[in-house]
Automatic annotation (TrEMBL):
This is EamA/RhaT family transporter. Residues 2-134, 144-272 form the EamA domain. It is found in: Membrane. InterPro entries: EamA_dom (IPR000620), EmrE-like (IPR037185). PANTHER family: ACYL-MALONYL CONDENSING ENZYME-RELATED, SOLUTE CARRIER FAMILY 35 MEMBER G1. The chain crosses the membrane at residues 35-53, 65-86, 92-111, 118-134, 140-160, 172-193, 199-218, 230-250, 256-273. GO terms for cellular component: membrane. It holds the Pfam family EamA.
Length: 283
C-alpha cells in the first residue's frame, strides 16, 4: 500500500512538471526554466543535507561520471521539456516509455548484462510501439517526435550511469551534483534570451522545481518498497492521467494509437524487468 502511495506521488509530480512547462512556454525559454530549476533544486538539496549535518554528501569520488551522466540528463530533460511545447502531452509521455528499451540496449552493450531471447523479444515489442506512435511518413509529427525520442535515448544513458553511481553515492549526492553540474549548462544556453519572470511565472517555476525533486524522491522510495513490475505497471498510468489533463485543460484530442503503441511498450518493459529476476532464480 505504501509503495502505491509513493507511485501516486510520482505520477502527480510528473504531471505537474508537464503542466508547469506548458504554462511557462510563452514566458521563458526551456533553457531558462532548467537553469532556474537547478538553482532552486540546489538550494533545497543543500538545505536538506545541512539539516542532517552530513556534509559528506557534498563530496564524491566519481566526479567524471557525474558530469558524464548530467550532460545526457540535461539533454534529455531539455528535449522532453521542449517536446511538451510542441506535441500533445500524452504523445510526449508515450514516447518517454521507450527509455527502458534504450536502457536495456545500453546495459547489454556497456554494462555486460546478458542479452537473452526474451529481452530481444521485449525490445522488438518496444520498437513496434514506437512505430505505432511516431507513425513514419507524417513529417510534421515526426520532426517533433524525434526530439522526444532522442531525449529518451539521453535519459537511458543517464539511467545507466545512475545505476553505476548508486553503488557508491547516496541519492542526495546524486541529486546535488545533478543540480550543480546542470546549472552552468542552463545559464549558458539561457543567457541570450533571458527574461524576467512575472510573479505568476515564478509560481510555476517553483512548482516545476519542487515537483521534479519530488518525482525523483517518490520514484526512488517506490522502487525500494515495491516489486519492479508493480512500479512499471503503475508508471504506465501516467499516460491516461496526462491524456486527461491534456484533454481537459488544453483541448487536446486523445489518439487511440498512443495507447496501442504504449501498450506494446508496456508489455515489452514488463518482460524486460521480469527477465533478470527469473535468471537469478534459475541460477
Amino acid at each position: 500500500m505504501l509503495s502505491i502511495l509513493w507511485m501516486m506521488g510520482a505520477l502527480c509530480s510528473f504531471c505537474l512538471i508537464a503542466i508547469g512547462a506548458r504554462e511557462l512556454s510563452g514566458d521563458i525559454t526551456t533553457a531558462q526554466l532548467m537553469a532556474l530549476r537547478s538553482i532552486i533544486g540546489l538550494g533545497i538539496i543543500s538545505a536538506i543535507i545541512l539539516y542532517y549535518s552530513d556534509t559528506r554528501l557534498f563530496k564524491t569520488q566519481r566526479l567524471r561520471l557525474h558530469v558524464f551522466r548530467n550532460v545526457f540528463h540535461f539533454a534529455g530533460q531539455y528535449g522532453w521539456l521542449l517536446g511538451l511545447t510542441l506535441l500533445p502531452l500524452a504523445e510526449v509521455f508515450a514516447i518517454e516509455f521507450t527509455v527502458p528499451i534504450w536502457t536495456a540496449i545500453i546495459a547489454t552493450l556497456f554494462l555486460n548484462e546478458r542479452f537473452t531471447s526474451k529481452r530481444l523479444f521485449s525490445l522488438v515489442l518496444g520498437f513496434i510501439g514506437v512505430l505505432i506512435i511516431v507513425q513514419p511518413g507524417n513529417k510534421i509529427i515526426n520532426s517533433a517526435s524525434l526530439i522526444v525520442l532522442v531525449a529518451a535515448m539521453c535519459y537511458a544513458v543517464s539511467h545507466a550511469s545512475t545505476k553505476s553511481l548508486s553503488t557508491s553515492d547516496k541519492p542526495l549526492t546524486i541529486l546535488f551534483f545533478m543540480c550543480l553540474v546542470q546549472l552552468p549548462f542552463g545559464l549558458i544556453l539561457a543567457y541570450q534570451g533571458w527574461q524576467s519572470p512575472n510573479i505568476f511565472a515564478w509560481g510555476w517555476i517553483v512548482l516545476v522545481s519542487v515537483s521534479a525533486l519530488l518525482a525523483h524522491f517518490c520514484m526512488a522510495k517506490a522502487m525500494q518498497s515495491a516489486d519492479v513490475t508493480l512500479v512499471v505497471m503503475m508508471d504506465f498510468l501516467r499516460l491516461p492521467l496526462i491524456a486527461f489533463v491534456g484533454f481537459y485543460f488544453y483541448e487536446e484530442g486523445i489518439d487511440w494509437t498512443l495507447f496501442l503503441g504504449a501498450s506494446f511498450m508496456l508489455v515489452g518493459n514488463l518482460m524486460n524487468v521480469s527477465s533478470p529476476r527469473k535468471e537469478m532464480v534459475n541460477s
